[in-house]
Amino acid sequence: MSCPLCHDTGWRAHLVEGVERFSRCDCWRQELVQDLLGEARIPARYRKCDFATLVTYPNEPMARAVRKARALSDAFPVVDKGILLIGPPGIGKTHLAVSVLREVVRKGMRGLYYDTRTLLSELRSSYDPVTRSSGAEILQAVMEAELLVLDDLGAERLTDWVEETMHLIVNTRYNEKRPTVFTSNYNDGPDDDLDSLKARVGFRMHSRLREMCEFLEYDGPDCREFGPPPDADILRQAWKERRRKRLPRRTSTRAAVRATEGQLELGWTGGKAVGGRGGR
Question: How far apart are CA 36 and CA 182, in angstroms?
Answer without folding.
Answer: 20
